[in-house]
Specification:
The protein is mostly helical. It has a single domain, classed as 23S rRNA-intervening sequence (de novo design (two linked rop proteins)). It is about 70% helix and about 5% strand. It has a two-stranded antiparallel ribbon. A hairpin with a 2-residue loop joins β1 and β2 (about 10). The longest helix has 28 residues, at about 45-70. It starts with a strand and ends with a helix.
């Protein structure tokens, strides 16, 4: 029997996702929503999916900026922050 956690049951032995794993999901989600937008059935559908993708990108960018403040000398975080900002700007 599972334990309820955040709206869903957590099965015995299942571990919680760390912040890094959740962050990756946001990045994957924004890419998936962008791909869905390419197959939109109408302009309204396209706009909706692009909007969702942009929201996901903005959230990823937010968390990367926080990491950049916490770890200012980490070159990988700097690179990812720059790349995230560029992707967000391309979507505007």
């Amino acid at each position: 029997m599972g334990v309820r956690q955040g709206g869903r049951r957590k099965e015995k032995g299942e571990r919680r996702k760390g912040k890094g794993e959740r962050g990756k999901e946001k990045v994957y989600s924004s890419g998936a929503n962008y791909e869905k937008a390419q197959a939109a059935v109408s302009r309204a559908d396209f706009g909706n999916k692009i909007g969702i993708s942009l929201k996901e990108m903005r959230e990823s960018n937010y968390w990367l900026r926080i990491l950049k403040e916490l770890f200012p000398s980490d070159s990988e975080i700097e690179r990812l922050t720059t790349e995230s900002q560029e992707l967000k700007n391309m979507s505007l």
